Amino acid sequence: MVQMNANFQKLPGSYLFSEIARRVSAYTEANPDKKLIKLGIGDVTLPLPAAVTAAMHAAVDEMATAGGFHGYGPEQGYAFLRDAIARQDYQDRGVSIQPDEIFISDGAKSDCGNIVDLFGLDNKVAVCDPVYPVYVDTNAMAGRAGDFNEATGRWSNLVYMPCVAENGFLPELPREDVDMIYLCFPNNPTGAAATKEQLLPWVEYANRTGAVLLYDSAYETFITTPGVPHTIYEIPGAETCAIEFRSFSKTAGFTGTRCAYTVVPKALVRQGLSLNAMWNRRQCTKFNGVPYVVQRGAAAIYTPEGRAQVQANLAVYQENARVIREGLAAAGLTVSGGVDSPYVWAQTPNGMGSWAFFDRLLKEANVVTTPGAGFGPSGEGYIRLTGFGEREATRQAVERIRGVL
Ligand code: MLT
């Protein structure tokens, strides 16, 4: 009889956003007349920038010609996209990342999940709490997280780094030794951003101990505060200890189009093994690359018109985040985030539980949020709202929440 991966049995219930979708569709089914406003999952609402769709149309036409047809592409991504990324996202910032250190993929979520292939099962994994659930669940599936404790909401083998109001939602270096450290800035879910000074100790720690930083920078384009680094490689020494995940989902509206990239520097070596070579080996074996048409669309983001159009879309989401932040604060909630991030992190009123407040807003305001507890025990007592909604709907949602409060 086949043996199954028993780790799946240890996973609690369903994936966070699937559980939210389940509750929302149950409510909609029972109340078909209600018009819900969704500020839950961080999914964009504005259409793709015109420069992107023009490039994709042109690529589709190319594909219809004998000379312009593309079959299997390079697993690592086409040079035209890797070169543009290396130059504009890194070298123009004074960071010497090279194209062969960049791997194009179909999403930061997949890469964050797949990266665990590179690491041994006995590694100690440190995660922020609250945290994007993918880091936790993928380590649990691999068998690195131990057992889940329903009472504490924690996995026995993970090291949790609480990110709470008292520490400005920034993790502190763990007291025990850890090997794989997940950091996400600007942070999902709290919206907190980290400065160079705040990131430096992590780079020093990883280089000193031989740990690896898994740095999720999917929300980088939302940074507006001067001095907040746009990549971990702005921190001296990061190229010998950090892998960075980036995505076009939130920057250019690619949530449904799928394109992202991961940076694995050649200088990152552990136990004599090049992580760049290992990731290349892994991708060549398990991945056949992102469609040519999609990569052409992504490359258009790096043209002057593409950049301007992306900025115009971002401005809408940033304004939405401001409306949420200021509206909820005016209604008496304690809020943070929403400045260098599309996410606003709001404390529930009167110590109400996250899921209870989520349900209340769903039923009384017809607004979908994300319960903070879904991101880990330290998220209890919070909800997350996203700035990715439509402009008018976002204003309405804030008004409705204020009405309920
Ligand atoms: C979120 O809402 O946290 C994200 O949209 C989920 C994701 O990017 O996978």
Description:
With 405 residues, this protein is of the alpha/beta class. It folds into two domains: 136 residues, Aspartate Aminotransferase, domain 1 (Alpha-Beta Complex), CATH 3.90.1150; 251 residues, Type I PLP-dependent aspartate aminotransferase-like (Major domain) (Aspartate Aminotransferase, domain 2), CATH 3.40.640.10. It is 38% helix and 15% strand. The protein has 13 helices and 17 strands. Strands 2-10-9-8-7-3-6 form a seven-stranded mixed beta sheet, sandwiched between helices. The longest helix is centred in the last third of the chain and has 27 residues. The chain is globular, with a radius of gyration of 21 Å. The model has no long low-confidence stretch (mean pLDDT 97). Bound molecules: D-malate. The site of D-malate has 6 residues, from loops.
Mean pLDDT: 97
Bound small molecules, by name, code or SMILES, are: D-malate
Number of discrete helical segments: 13
Global structural class: alpha/beta
Topology diagram in text:
Elements: H1 7-10, H2 16-30, E1 37-38, H3 50-63, H4 79-90, E2 102-105, H5 108-114, E3 125-129, H6 133-142, E4 148-149, E5 154-155, E6 158-162, E7 180-184, H7 196-209, E8 212-216, E9 242-247, H8 249-252, E10 260-263, E11 269-270, E12 273-274, H9 275-286, H10 292-299, H11 304-330, E13 335-337, E14 343-347, H12 354-365, E15 367-368, E16 370-371, E17 382-386, H13 391-404
Parallel strand pairs: 1-15, 3-6, 3-7, 7-8, 8-9
Antiparallel strand pairs: 2-10, 4-5, 9-10, 11-12, 13-14, 14-17, 16-17
Bound molecules: D-malate.
D-malate binds at residues 41-43, 109, 132, 188.
